[in-house]
Amino acid sequence: MSMPTYKVCCDKCDYEAWSLKLWGAKEYIDSEGQRIPVDVTLNWCNECQSLEPVESFDHTEEYVKKLKEALNNIKDNTNSVPKLFYIRLMSWFRGADQCFLNEALEYTRKIELDFKRKGTEKCLTCGADDVHIYSGNKGIDWQLKFENDNDNTITNIQHPNCGGEFYISTDVIRVAMSSDMRTFTINGEELINS
Ligand SMILES: [Zn+2]
Ligand SMILES: [Zn+2]
Predict the structure, then answer these.
(1) Which end of the chain is more exposed for a tag (fewer CB within 10 A), N or C?
(2) If phi over 0 gives left and psi between -120 and 50 gives alpha, with beta otherwise, what is residue 156?
(3) How far is the CA of 101 from the centre of ligand 2 (A)?
């Protein structure tokens, strides 16, 4: 399967990086063996001296919304009677409830991790936490939507030690996607041979 990848360039020097650096499935595995998806954005790593995939804990609001949706789905399935819900919880679940409950638990773990780890983001290439975090709408997401197909997109992200500014070029190439899975502890340290 091939996917579009875009290029981030500096407007002052010839530095460039491709968004395919963000690709590949990544998961945290917590102390109970539960898997939690890893969010990444391209950010500047001082150790690598380049834009690298860096952990992101900036999607809390989105996960809270998803958690509410999952809980509402469970509530709807149980006729809005909390007591009934607990009785059902003790006895059996319909498949759908089990699925929403698993979703709710995953979002809960994700929100917990966002609060715990925000401010301690690590570079997922070298493992260092010496990174510049460009959060919110300044972050470079791999699913980036172009504002205008014909124009370079300004990022407002400075190239450290250069003074230039990164922009996203309209050049897009399609590259075969790898199916590698990398796993990390909840502190962002890579688990080898797992
Ligand atoms: Zn530069
Ligand atoms: Zn790095």
Answers:
(1) N
(2) left
(3) 36
